[in-house]
Amino acid sequence: MTDALDLLLAALLVIAGGFGLIGSYGLIRLREGMQRLHAPTKASTVGLGAALLVSMLHGLGTGTGFSWQELLVMIFIFVTAPISANYLSKLHLHLRRAELDLPETGTARDWATFDHQPEPAEPSLPRRDT
């Protein structure tokens, strides 16, 4: 490998480690659940993605070839992190918020997803008289 590629990979590893460290620190130090949710879903995901990118580039630079497994792991992490964050934020809403504190949803349903009311096909937004 060339020296320029080595320096690029080392810089990317330092950036990845920095993002991972910031995400871990935020997970430990932030007080509220919604604040804690932001740290691992954003910073740690970017850090892990950068580390996997370094590993793939290193494989290409040394001649061992492209690693499809690392690409699949990166895609899996980038797809599942927002989904898990969405479910954790819904859980936080259900456990921490009083029903009167929540804003209107714009539909016939409440914020709770545990009831079995049929949802209308279109949101029931207020109509403007023209």
UniProtKB/TrEMBL annotation:
Keywords: Membrane, Transmembrane, Transmembrane helix. Signal peptide: none annotated. The chain crosses the membrane at residues 6-28, 66-88. Residues 109-130 are annotated as: Disordered. It comes from the Bacteria. InterPro entries: PhaG_MnhG_YufB. Residues 112-130 have a biased composition (Basic and acidic residues). PANTHER family: ANTIPORTER SUBUNIT MNHG2-RELATED. This is Monovalent cation/H(+) antiporter subunit G. It comes from Paragemmobacter amnigenus.
